[in-house]
Batch of 4 targets.
Target 1
Amino acid sequence: MDTVVNITQFLLSLSLLILLHELGHFFPARWFKTRVEKFYLFFDFAPFHALWKTRKGDTEYGIGWLPLGGYVKIAGMVDESMDTEALKRPPQPWEFRSKPAWQRLIIMIGGVTVNFLLGFFIFAALLFFFGKSYIPNNSLPYGLAFEPILLECGFQQGDVLLRVGNRSIDQVDPAAFVEEVILNNACEVTVLRQGKSLTFRLPDDIADRLVKEKVAKNTLMSPRIPFYVAEVMPGMPAKEAGIQPGDRIIAFNDQPTLFYDEFTPLARANKGKPATITILRGADTLVFSLTLTAQGLIGVRPRVEGFFLVQRKPYSLAAAIPEGVRMGIEFLSNQLKAFGKMFRGELSVKENLGSIISIGKMYGTSWDWERFWTLTASLSILLAFMNLLPIPALDGGYVMFLLWEVISGRKVSDRVVERAVTIGFFLLLGLMVYAFGLDLWRHFFQRFF
């Protein structure tokens, strides 16, 4: 069921983005009286055919079987379908190649324009309806808990992050830490430790290590909490041993574990082994014996509510719109910085490149509308940027040829465009296969080697 929820969210988001992107091409084509022969959600490549199709007027509408994108087939346009028979005949008034360059340019940029506007709109709507949630630093009575990679870099459990490089931090914001370290090369941090401010330097290889170890941003640092049991999973060691909701776990094999972050590394180090768990139940101290699972779990969910304050900053519509645009631009700027670092070899392409498998996993196994729309907005902007790259077979490739025509007054021949699109298509196909292979290795095969 978890997998079904995950896949459903991803396909719904992807379908929405593809549909609106293709409509961004479809409507300008119709406005300029250009015939659209096909409008498809997903691809219908051989050997399989469309899952559904119907014809209305001059256009065939359908849903393909391969959820990697969609397309509109515009009459008289050289595209990735490699159908060039119509180009051997004289241009017809309803064909793409018969239209002025400025009209063809509007048709081609329509898709990315819709995706950019959609991303900005969703970010603004999220702020208007949900506000922006945050945990202020002054509501952390126990400080922060850090992943081992940050503990190795000089952080201590209970620290509160105050500054990364030149950027002040007044709330729990692991994404800001990652952004400053990886994209802006921040090398110093300031923390509040036992009531005193302390500044120290991060290791020179911290950015590479964060990328290679693939630590999720939201778990890199989080509010530190005492280990109270909120739920005991049926059929798991804790349930069989007699641990109950409301118990506070205070020791593992007689080693004090007053906080959840103290318990988890000890459990991971004792996978599949017998252990004693000491708990407080009211005024009583009890000891239970159990055997951890092969994953180092006892089968409980910790209580996180009530130990820190979560606030939401509300936004009026007038404030949400510019802030939503700013969020979209900031997201795109960070992506450009990351791509630049990969291009210069400062970030590993192999470690950062992913396919629809990696993207799909980000949606999670529970339905969270705020997360769903945040990911959809981010992907919409990323899709717009990727499509604008000046690569033949992408919108940006056609735009490049059309801009040349507008500037020089000379049209690039259909033969040149056809060859360029063919080369671009196979380059993109090769990149997709490579990214898909990396994901298969990471998520399915790496554990066996």
Target 2
Amino acid sequence: MFSFFQKKVYLADYLHGMVDIHNHILPGIDDGSKSVAESLELLRGFSELGVKKFICTPHIMHNHYDNTPKTIKDSYEILSKELEASKGLELILEYAAEHMVDDNFEHILAKGKVIPLHNEYLLIEMSYLQPSLNFDAAVEKIGKESLFPVLAHPERYMYFHHKYGKYPVMKSQGVLYQANLLSLTPESYGEGVAKITAKLLEDDLIDFVGSDVHNMRQLSALKEIKLSNKLLNRLLPIIERTIHTFY
């Protein structure tokens, strides 16, 4: 007999081997982990899911989180030292940054003060209130630096939800998209974000995924995500592409 109730599966069961390219695990330098102890707790929690490699991406945001390659490296080295001393945590830790496209972005780009993922991919973001006025110019300049722009959580920019055509336009301009795993269900960011995430996956517009986890509450929410088989089957190739590109 046909059932109207689709069986759902836990996303956590399919994250083994994932490379998390967007998270706020480095301690004490943005709105993510507040201490080394919290960072290690997050890493242990992810390790239980089989996630073994992390590219840590703290914010670089003018007048909010004025991080530099030095402040990020310093935090990374503190955490790396403690990780080495921790028993039972065999993880790979690297660092990059999540760059706000703001009035200072093009300056730090020109000065070589950005931190790409794997030396090739630059993780960028915009304000949730309005698009960056200099976004198109910034994308062009990123390309001139021989970098690929990766827009973090495109599904969370709600001003594009009713202008969906903007997504393929940006894509045609060379922008890659990294979706948040927490966006797959309404619990974290709302129903509208979840619907757009599913639509972007359906239209094959998402290139990579990341957790964007800031704290244990979000990690706990990640562990509770259930997906339909249909949505999971669209997601799995993106997870594999992320592993292949960044491992």
Target 3
Amino acid sequence: MTEAANTQIDHEAAERDIQTFSFKAPETYSRRKAIVRLVGTDRGQTAVHCLGQGGENNLHYHAGVDITWMVLKGRARFYGPEDVVRGEFGPQEGILIPSGARYWFESCGTDDLELLQIKMYHRGKGTDKRIDAAPRDFEIMEGASHFEAAKA
């Protein structure tokens, strides 16, 4: 980057928006899944999805966001339409699901599953529309009380 291009960036404003976080999985949750939100901007968001045994979701897709999933703990199996297996992943492995791609996943190991979710919004709009392609038979517990982000 040239010095001229560098002067067009408001470094101080960007640096005021730096966010730090820590993650602690909920000790208990009453539903199949808890979501612990970590940090986010209008261009993306990061969270950890915690699933107990039998935790899964339904076939769905997201409009306006690409999502990267990485297993932190446990094992996850991702599926597409008609239950076609897209992949099975262990710790430090994952998958990118582009906007519009239909998928669902389940915990398939002996340990509880912790999945890092990184959302990248299209054109920085900060919107994600989740659209069910099959009915849900569960509720999700939002982990807002476990949100431990702090601005630096």
Target 4
Amino acid sequence: MINRRLLRIKILQVLFAYFRSNNDSLSNLEKELHFSIEKSYQLYLLVLLLPEALADVALEKIELGKQKFRPTADELNPNTRFVDNPLIHILRNNQALKQKAKDSKLSWKNYPEVVKLLYQQLVSSESYHKFMSDDEFSLDTCRQMIVNFYLNELENSDEFDAFLEEQSIYWNDDLKFVLSMAAKTIKKVREENPDALKLMPLYRNEEDKDFAFQLMAKAVLKHSDNVGLIEEYTQNWEVDRIASMDMLIMEMAITEVLEFPSIPVKVSLNEYIEIAKFYSTEQSGLFINGVLDKIITTLRQQKKFEKQGRGLIGDIAETPDDINSLEPDTE
């Protein structure tokens, strides 16, 4: 599930804290990275548990309406489309989701007020109104309504943002990516049965897992060399005045170019320049691009690295595995 863009960001965050404290061992650093990645997956599970919690709120409101002393006609004959949603039935009965949630101690039951706030956002949305009044009622319409809720409501919800911030320092930066992964999971449900929903694995493959921990370890081990290299190509700058985040982004980029022969240079540079736009100053992208361009050009001329693998002739190829972004899926 976790793509390489997010892995790079996780490593950047862990290394930033490590170099500022300078108290941790490499083994502790690896534990922190693993914990950070696990938290992203837990947020993915929590998002998939949310529709069931929302349906429970809706059902409770329906039952309370019926129990009123003088219920209205709508309360006596409520629209039960949302609580009868076949997709929610699939989520509610998916054993893999339930077991993983239990193992991670994840539940919305301890946050009833948050769920009620999010339910109000749901019922106020245009996609919900369309779903409740549409002539068609199918797994497709249920699926699309939930996906719209994820990508249009939750992603822009101040209440949800505040909740995540209270629960974990790891979650706010993950939200956009996690919601897109949850939406992809929902979109793949094609049959109305509890096993129709297939959870994504924590890592897409073993290569991604190895990439993450090797990149972090090598960035630590090559720290002094990389700082020296950056100093050499920023002679008109005092290194201690370069933003710490800019330095670390450049260190990671150099490490990746030198230590991972199967990843094209263009991919590595593009990734870190994009990351710089979100995690450093407005000018950082241009500055980092300029410095790295000089360093990589020189290292290439000195034959300090060689790219290998299919499609790397001239080192201009881009591979799908390395160009995954945080943008939500639009299929």
